[in-house]
Structures are given as structure tokens and as C-alpha cells.
Design a protein that fits this description.
Blueprint lengths: L12 E3 L5 E3 L1 H51 L1 H8 L1 H21 L2
Antiparallel strand pairs: 1-2
Length: 108
């Protein structure tokens, strides 16, 4: 009986009884993990780009509305009243906070 001489790299292939090489389990696992990481990387990249676009759009929207709110506040009577009566304004704000908190706790 003639012995089979198999020159197979033990790091990459394992010998089968029929002389063919089959990938090691560790290589199969590594390939599977590489594919999974590549797929996750592509999804994460798309998600990141979407978030960046949303943040840029939100930033522009908020900047525009901030300017409008500042203009409206400068013209409002509430601003004038708040600057003339700061203690009363603080009291009203505190009272509203207490009422809102009480209403929210009742809702539970």
C-alpha cells in the first residue's frame, strides 16, 4: 500500500481522506465574520450619511426659525412685561411649572 504524500499547509487546509483539501472551520468562521462585518459597515455608513444629512437640514431649519423667533420676541409685549416685572414673571413661570407637573403626575 502506497502512502499518500499530502503537502497541505496546516494553517489553511485540512486533508480529506480522498486527497482533496477542505477549509478549516476557523477559516470558514473568519470568512463568515468578514462578510458580516462588511455588511454591517455598509449599513453603518449609509446610516451615518443619513444622520449627517438630517442634522445638516435640522441645523438650517433651526437657524432660520431662531432668527424668526428672536425677531418676534423683540416685538412682543411679553418681552416688555418680562423686563419690566422680572419677579412677577419668575413667579408665573414657577406656578405654571407646578400646575403642569401636577397634571402630568395625575395622568400616570
Amino acid at each position: 500500500m502506497k502512502a499518500q504524500n499530502q503537502n497541505i499547509d496546516p494553517k489553511s487546509k485540512a486533508a480529506k481522506g480522498n486527497g482533496q483539501a477542505e477549509p478549516l472551520l476557523s477559516e470558514q468562521l473568519a470568512d463568515s465574520l468578514h462578510h458580516s462585518i462588511d455588511a454591517m459597515s455598509q449599513k453603518a455608513s449609509a446610516t451615518e450619511q443619513g444622520l449627517r444629512n438630517s442634522m445638516a437640514a435640522s441645523s438650517r431649519y433651526l437657524k432660520t426659525n431662531k432668527q424668526k423667533l428672536e425677531r418676534n420676541w423683540a416685538k412682543s409685549g411679553a418681552r416688555k412685561y418680562a423686563s419690566e416685572h422680572p419677579v412677577m414673571t419668575a413667579g408665573v413661570a414657577f406656578g405654571l411649572g407646578v400646575v403642569i407637573t401636577a397634571l402630568l403626575r395625575k395622568g400616570r
